[in-house]
Amino acid sequence: MGRHSHASGQLVYAASGVFATTTEFGTWVAPADRVTWTPPGFEHSHRFYGRTDARILAVPAEECGALARQPCVFAVSPLLRAGILALTGEKERSDEAVRRVRAVVLDELGEVPGESLHLPEPRDDRLRAVTEMLHEDPGRGETLAELGRVAGASERTLSRLFHADLGMSFQRWRTVLRIHHALFQLTGGASVTDTAIACGWSNPSAFIGAFTALVGQTPGRYQAGLRDRGE
Fold it and tell me: What is the pTM of this model?
């Protein structure tokens, strides 16, 4: 789905599959049972992976005041899930019923902690040269110094830019990038071991630890959830 914006806010819920929301500030990935929030007027694009059941809920601009000013990915509690499914299902509801259920959804969303699946994108050309190499092949294992020699910048300069421009270290940025690609691989049916190798981990144990820290569950449990939903 190409770049566009909405006058209303938008919640996109991945009942199954994975989707990514991309803006000028980077990419937010939402695996199954996550919801992405995009504020009104915020230009963005979506990309879907696997057999995705995406539920889209518009939130009127006048009801968005208490919500985040930039896109976020949140875990979905049982109550939040039930509310989104009710509002995006086939059952006809009165305008008043829709407003009441939507109010519950927005209240519940405020109680659910955000998850660290945001991958910021650089503005600096030297940094962009490095990140583009890693986007093309997340599994490449060069150090920042080695990548810097290709990009024409020193390790010290690039390390400073990662913190100043992206708000995180090189290692953290690369880990989030790899987890994004791991989610796409796992959703497509790749094994945990093959995914670990393709995304640059030297062994499955290290991959499982990194994946669990960011996604909140092991890769095996994530894939089991996909099977339970019939993907």
Answer: 0.83
